[in-house]
Specification:
By secondary structure, the protein is mainly alpha-helical. It folds into three domains: about 80 residues, Rna Polymerase Sigma Factor, Chain: A (Orthogonal Bundle), CATH 1.10.1740.10; about 50 residues, no CATH class; about 80 residues, Winged helix-like DNA-binding domain superfamily/Winged helix DNA-binding domain (Arc Repressor Mutant, subunit A, Orthogonal Bundle). Helices cover about 70% and strands about 0% of the residues. The radius of gyration is 23 Å and the shape is globular.
Length: about 220
């Protein structure tokens, strides 16, 4: 394919790529930034144009669509704030728990497993801290989220309301902004470390962080 044909193909399929990205955003999470999906999908589009071979009996659009969706889904996996290492630790712990239940005749508590495997507790804490909170999910008793009995009742009500609004506001942030906030404030990672894990520059991380703070300040009232 000549450079002119390649450019024409990109211009032809880019509007379709935008529609595909919008479809992924609506089906996965409305807070995902479409521009991020388009950026990932563009990589798949260029790869499809450069490697397309009509002898396999498929059209360029069909081939490009498959590679674009694949690239966007890979991008969504990279946005997951919980690392694969943490998720693997949790999966192995669940498997061990049910395997031992067949021997013991009962399910061990997670606390019992944590005493045998100190890394498990850290993994559970990281997964809880970096995952989006849901009103449909109970808060673990060891999360430190119980009410503060030392302050005035009215103050506790106000703080509880603000925390609830903050949680809802964080849930509505775009996925990449949520990821940066989680890694920075809960994962205690530096902007440079976050940039390396997300494969973007520290300056870009700083911009995403600033945008997230701006959204939260507009949507969450300060505690008086």
């Amino acid at each position: 394919m000549s450079p002119a044909e390649r450019t024409h193909a990109v211009e032809t399929f880019f509007p379709k790529l935008r529609r595909w990205a919008g479809r992924v955003s609506r089906s996965v999470n409305a807070a995902v930034e479409v521009d991020d999906l388009i950026g990932d999908g563009s990589i798949g589009l260029l790869r499809a144009i450069d490697t397309y071979d009509p002898k396999y009996g498929t059209t360029l659009e069909q081939y490009a669509r498959r590679l674009c969706f694949g690239a966007m889904l890979n991008g969504l996996r990279r946005m997951d704030p919980v690392s694969e290492r943490v998720r693997r630790t949790l999966r192995l712990a669940d498997r061990e728990r049910f395997e031992r239940a067949q021997l013991l005749g009962r399910l061990e508590t997670m606390g019992e497993l944590e005493r045998k495997n100190p890394k498990l507790r850290r993994a559970r804490e990281m997964a809880f801290a970096l995952s989006t909170l849901s009103l449909d999910r109970s808060v673990p008793l060891d999360s430190g989220a119980l009410a503060d009995s030392t302050s005035e009742p009215a103050e506790r009500v106000v703080r509880s309301s603000v925390r609830r609004e903050l949680r809802n506001a964080i849930d509505l942030l775009p996925a990449r902004q949520r990821q940066v906030m989680a890694l920075y404030y809960y994962g205690e990672q530096s902007l440079h470390a976050i940039g390396r894990s997300m494969k973007i520059s520290a300056q870009r991380v700083s911009q995403i962080h600033a945008k997230a703070l701006g959204r939260l300040r507009r949507n969450v009232p300060p505690i008086r």
